[in-house]
Amino acid sequence: MPVPADQYFFIDPNRCIGCESCVQACSECDTHKGHSMIHLEYANRRESPQTLPVVCMHCDSPTCAEVCPADAIKRTEDGVVQTARKPRCIACNNCVLACPFGVPKMNVRQELMMKCDMCYDRTSEGKRPMCATVCPSQALFFGTREEIERLRPRSRPINEFQFGFQTIHTKVRMMVPRETVATHIDVAEVLCHPDEGSDQEDAMLAAALCELPIVART
């Protein structure tokens, strides 16, 4: 049974309170065997306690699957990108390095890439993902477009993201203030030229990102 076409996963970072209820609930899911497939990131840890829940965005054209040499990652017809299949995953880490959202994690002990599969065992039966059922602030919400618009009239969902020349559309929607214009941040440019006083400069990362030859797009 596919995930209902009118049901979407919405993430509203403005509502995340960093309680980690989602992390705990995810780790208790039977299919994850004690591992949480969601984690929290800090928006700017030096200046703010604001956190952001990170799950798989379930890209329409998933880079993780495209770079997998063993064809271990599948996207179902309803748009959910599954975790790597154990019989095929060779633990090469290609998917971990390629994901622009930094989602897949390598389980070294099991030699298996594991990531959020939107609780497919639940959502394909009409239930909500575990994390969305426990989030006290509804920073994680699973429902219809009409429901989220009724609940958040001052926000709007976006599912188009730009990484360099690559435009990515996702099944998961990110909530942003309705009147805010989405800004394209060149992450590589920021890393090459960090703000004065920033602690983000990393010699190895800078060499990898900034000293590679730039090939013009024609």
Features:
8 helices, four-stranded mixed beta sheet, 8 strands
In short:
This protein has 218 residues and is of the alpha+beta class. The chain is 21% helix and 20% strand.
What does this structure look like?
- The chain contains 8 helices and 8 strands; from the N terminus they run βαββααββααβαββαα.
- The protein has helices spanning 21-27, 63-66, 94-98, 120-123, 130-134, 145-151, 187-192, 203-210; strands at 8-11, 39-42, 51-54, 105-107, 112-114, 140-143, 155-163, 166-177.
- The strands form 3 sheets. Strands 6-1-8-7 form a 4-stranded mixed β-sheet. Strands 2-3 form a two-stranded antiparallel sheet. The protein has a two-stranded antiparallel sheet with strand order 4-5.
- Strand 4 and strand 5 (112-114) form a beta hairpin.
- It is globular.
- Residues 213-218 have low confidence and may be disordered.
**Mean of residue pLDDT?**
86
Helix content: 10-25%
What distance lies between the first and last C-alpha atoms, to the nearest angstrom? 44 Å
Order of helix and strand elements from N to C terminus:
EHEEHHEEHHEHEEHH
The beta-strand count equals: 8
Please give the largest β-sheet.
4 strands, mixed
Q: Could you state the oligomeric state of the chains shown?
A: single chain
Radius of gyration: 18 Å
> What class, by secondary structure content?
alpha+beta
β-sheet strand percentage: 15-25%
Poorly predicted sequence stretches spanning 5 or more consecutive residues: 213-218
* Spatial order of the strands forming the largest sheet: 6-1-8-7
Shape category: globular
User: How many helices does DSSP assign?
Assistant: 8
